[in-house]
Amino acid sequence: MNIVMLDQDSSYDGDSLRNKPLGGTESSFVSLAEAFADLGHNVTALTKIDKVKTIEGVKWKPLDFNFKNCDLYIANRAPELLSKAPVGSKKILWLHNPGNYLNKLRNLKRLLFKNIIVVCCGDYHLSTIPFWLRSRTIKIPLGLPNEIFKLKIETNIIPDPISIYSSNPERGLIWLVKLWNDKIAVNIPGAKLRLFAGHETYGGRKKDKISNILDSIRKLNSSYIEVNKPITKNDLFKKIILSRVMLYKGDEGETFCLSVAEAQALGVPAVVKSIGSLPERVKHNVTGFVVNNDEDFVKAAISVLTDDKLWKKMKNNSLKMQRDNSWNKVAKKFISSIV
Prior knowledge:
By secondary structure, this protein is α/β, with parallel strands linked by helices. It is built from 13 helices and 14 strands. The longest helix has 15 residues, at 24-38.
């Protein structure tokens, strides 16, 4: 099958995933393209890059590349990209953000009464899709990178009381730092919150806002917190498996939360709030805790960080239950949606 994928928001390609920090949406785009190629399809991916490359079987080209036809056309996030789809091609709009913006008149015109399939990430994501579009919307959760399945994960070594944070600092990091300093770490000898975050992950977008958040945390000069620059996915996975827990508040604008999904797949229990898509990522009291208030968040965090028996149970459950969705499986679901 001849597949064309487009993302107009950032400049990246398959090398970006391996050589620099990359956000969840962009890394998902790369991973799906490579999964299609691995399944034997002819894949062309267009982003804001300048140079043509072929990486892992995917042909990466600039957005202005003129293609004449394809069997499957996937527009990433932006409905306006659908206008470039060749006549006769099957069309998919792949969403990553809440779907409320599709109600705007310009987007309604592009989608109403059109033979276009919308792909969302899950139940919470579907709830944000306009009612008039839900009958053409299918749920396909994001996949897990192959590198996760290649890593050796020790199940008998109990890690130090380290929590890891690798998401967008705008999504509750200041809240987490305050709880960590005031109510969690002070009760646990040797506790450390390791941050791997920065504007570099998002191609420099929101540089000032993200930098200001991280600078304010550095100024606290807390012995309980370690601020690191973002790193590549593969390097991050190696840091995650050394952690005891992932603590994360969540955000209503987050429709999947790949960072929590990846941590769970690496056997790291998570403590999260019941916000957005997080109840779909963490199995409450099985692979972590999903709580409704700050007090319960603190209690759950301390429990996972100090109770070895509880931690080991949740780690083993995560490894058994949260590793079943490879990107090749995701790619097959995309193909099935148009057949």
